[in-house]
């Protein structure tokens, strides 16, 4: 293994910057329209560009001695069918992609991890409180909507079906809208150290739900949308951290039992913290999340483990380097 590669999007700059800091050659595979953007960074050794999305898999597979680091844009841009054709080794558990892309399987994995989650409604007709309806996949909140009752839930789902955003109501998940502060807890599980590290916390900045707060009440009521456009750093009360870490360790244990070969590397428990101090987890991401881009020089938590600048991208590369040194690459690749 000589190089680390990734798709040009999401958190690719952080991934490749961290890889270069740990001594790896770096490769980005990107849409030709973004080629010039990535060529300006001297920590990226090779820029491979494609005109059509089908060419991306060929470019990935061409680098057999490289390890591909996945992020949220991999499946969302390429699609699961193309990702299944990737023969290059992937850092992390590629089998988690299917679980992450299916809202029902995602929530099952959280629930069976003994993690507090919101109430879920099987049908729109069962809705009896404020809910949020979510589409499958890593869409950054696109298409999500709020419904106050079963009538609004049914209407919104039918509109998604008519727009061909989904095939049927089984594709979405209807989830109780928990009021509180959103906190996205970032973790890294190291198979080499058998350790779960709290790596950072972020809050997603969403349009237009966050922008609506700036409007005077005289502008009337506008429907909120939840498309993520940025991230804000956060530090939690220290008393919340033991519960967050307990949830993370429960999740790691459950994934090991249900999604072979288990959790490898970065993941995120996307949560709301209520006024009672409860952490309610409403989603997970089974790979690096864009909120870690806030911490290219290390987060307040990564410093506690490493006492040096440690981004999530560099942490991935450090795990790979240690796996090479100890001849244990099979523990971190699928």
UniProtKB/TrEMBL annotation:
Enzyme class: ligase
Record field: catalytic activity: 5-amino-1-(5-phospho-beta-D-ribosyl)imidazole-4-carboxamide + formate + ATP = 5-formamido-1-(5-phospho-D-ribosyl)imidazole-4-carboxamide + ADP + phosphate
Coiled-coil features, chain-numbered ranges: none
Pfam families: DUF1246, DUF1297
Binding site for 5-amino-1-(5-phospho-beta-D-ribosyl)imidazole-4-carboxamide: 10, 73, 231
UniProt KW keywords: ATP-binding, Ligase, Magnesium, Manganese, Metal-binding, Nucleotide-binding, Purine biosynthesis
Keyword Metal-binding tagged: yes
Recorded GO MF terms: ATP binding; ligase activity, forming carbon-nitrogen bonds; magnesium ion binding
Residues binding ATP, per UniProt: 206
Names of the cofactor(s): Mg(2+); Mn(2+)
Family: Belongs to the phosphohexose mutase family.
The protein's name in its UniProt record: 5-formaminoimidazole-4-carboxamide-1-(beta)-D-ribofuranosyl 5'-monophosphate synthetase
Gene name for this UniProt entry: purP
């Amino acid at each position: 293994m000589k190089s680390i590669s990734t798709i040009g999007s999401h958190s690719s700059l952080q991934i490749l910057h961290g890889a270069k800091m740990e001594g790896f050659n770096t490769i980005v595979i990107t849409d030709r329209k973004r080629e010039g953007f990535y060529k300006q960074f001297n920590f990226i050794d090779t820029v491979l560009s494609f005109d059509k999305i089908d060419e991306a898999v060929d470019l990935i597979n061409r680098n057999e001695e490289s390890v591909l680091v996945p992020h949220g844009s991999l499946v969302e841009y390429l699609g699961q069918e193309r990702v299944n054709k990737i023969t290059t080794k992937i850092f992390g558990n590629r089998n988690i992609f299917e679980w992450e892309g299916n809202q029902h399987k995602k929530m099952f994995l959280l629930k069976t991890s003994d993690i507090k989650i919101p109430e879920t409604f099987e049908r729109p007709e069962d809705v009896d409180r404020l809910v949020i309806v979510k589409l499958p996949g890593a869409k950054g909140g696109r298409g999500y909507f709020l419904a106050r009752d079963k009538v609004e839930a049914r209407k919104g789902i039918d509109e998604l079906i008519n727009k061909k955003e989904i095939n049927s109501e089984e594709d979405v998940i209807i989830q109780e809208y928990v009021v509180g502060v959103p906190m996205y807890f970032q973790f890294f599980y190291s198979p080499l150290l058998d350790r779960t590290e709290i790596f950072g916390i972020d809050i997603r900045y969403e349009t237009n739900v966050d922008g609506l707060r700036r409007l005077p009440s005289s502008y009337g009521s506008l429907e909120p949308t939840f498309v993520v456009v940025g991230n804000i750093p956060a530090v939690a009360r220290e008393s919340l951290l033991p519960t967050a870490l307990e949830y993370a360790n429960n999740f790691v244990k459950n994934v090991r039992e249900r999604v072979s070969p288990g959790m490898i590397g970065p993941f995120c428990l996307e949560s709301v913290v209520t006024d009672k101090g409860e952490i309610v987890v409403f989603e997970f991401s089974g790979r690096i999340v864009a909120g870690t881009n806030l911490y290219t020089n290390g987060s307040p938590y990564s410093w506690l483990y490493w006492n040096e600048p440690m981004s999530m991208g560099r942490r991935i590369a450090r795990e790979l380097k240690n796996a090479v040194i100890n001849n244990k690459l099979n523990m971190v690749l699928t």
